[in-house]
Write a structure and sequence with these properties.
Elements: H1 3-18, E1 20-21, E2 38-49, H2 64-75, H3 105-109, E3 112-114, E4 117-119, H4 121-131, E5 138-141, E6 157-165, E7 168-179, H5 180-201, E8 205-219, H6 223-229, E9 239-242, E10 257-260
Parallel strand pairs: 7-8
Antiparallel strand pairs: 1-2, 2-8, 3-4, 5-6, 6-7, 9-10
Length: 275
């Protein structure tokens, strides 16, 4: 059984069995204008050992290549324009020029001054992993209060903290909000890949990814779909492959990664989207 499946099932059962059901006014809406309320749990923390397996679910397919496209768009291209993104998942948030405002990649490309010179957030991580791996200050944060009013959407996954122990790179992903059905494993896979990327180009091995979720929720119209999905029989996890020849973070492409023997359960139900 995939560890990611087991964790997802445990999270969803905890939310459904002991979570708080929203009853008041909420911001999200379904396409028909109805309020998209949730059942939620505060403060879920999950640990994934990347040295043992890649944390992709088999309860239903997670489209890893599409998830990687978005990851590279944010972390490598540092873009905030959907026209630079292969998938169309951000289109509904973009303006007429394709911009999502001062969000995500925009924040990562902002340069800041340090005693060693000027770096953006990604390049500072790369610098520290190679030159100061014992630092306890290797982190990124894209929740910039000054720019929130100019973001199409406040960042959900907003902070990464990296920590080197021996020759192993560990990471913590902080997330303020998590739609469990549509986004949970998508984000887990993305930041597992990111940890592998940083580790490889820094001469390290990927260790643990810790995922901290402040508000883990299941939307009301997703509840029957989640109940159905977690009854599926999990399969064995696939083997994750990363091109070992890549030595520069900016040389990775979507084709630098693959999965061997990824078998997953069929799940063809249409998933309503809350906006």
């Amino acid at each position: 059984m995939s560890c990611a499946d087991m964790i997802f099932i445990q999270n969803c059962r905890e939310i459904l069995d002991t979570g708080i059901r929203e009853t008041g006014e909420v911001r999200p809406r379904w396409e028909d204008g109805s309020p998209a309320r949730t059942v939620k749990k505060f403060g879920i923390v999950n640990r994934y050992d990347l040295a043992k397996e890649f944390p992709i679910m088999t309860l239903r397919r997670t489209y890893l290549k599409s998830a990687i496209d978005e990851l590279l768009w944010i972390w490598q291209e540092k873009s905030n324009n959907v026209r630079d993104l292969r998938t169309r998942i951000w289109d509904k948030w973009a303006d007429g020029d394709g911009s999502i405002g001062k969000a995500y990649g925009y924040q990562l490309k902002l340069r800041h001054h340090y005693k060693e010179g000027d770096f953006d957030q990604v390049d500072r991580v790369l610098f520290d992993l190679k030159n100061n791996p014992s630092s306890r200050r290797i982190m990124t944060n894209i929740y910039n209060f000054e720019d929130l009013s100019e973001m199409a959407l406040y960042p959900c996954a907003y902070s990464m903290t990296f920590n080197v122990s021996g020759d192993t790179l560990n990471a913590i992903l902080n997330q303020r909000s998590q739609d469990m059905l549509t986004a949970n494993n998508w984000n887990v896979c993305q930041y597992a890949v990111l940890t592998h990327m940083f580790a490889l180009v820094s001469g390290l091995s990927a260790g643990e990814l810790v995922h901290v979720i402040a508000d883990a929720h299941i939307y009301d119209r997703h509840v029957p779909l989640v109940e159905k999905m977690i009854k599926n029989e999990p399969k064995d996890p696939p083997k994750f492959m990363i091109d070992p020849e890549v030595s520069d973070f900016y040389d990775f492409t979507r084709d630098s990664f693959s999965l061997e023997n990824y078998n997953c359960c069929e799940f063809s139900d249409a998933i309503p989207v809350a906006l």
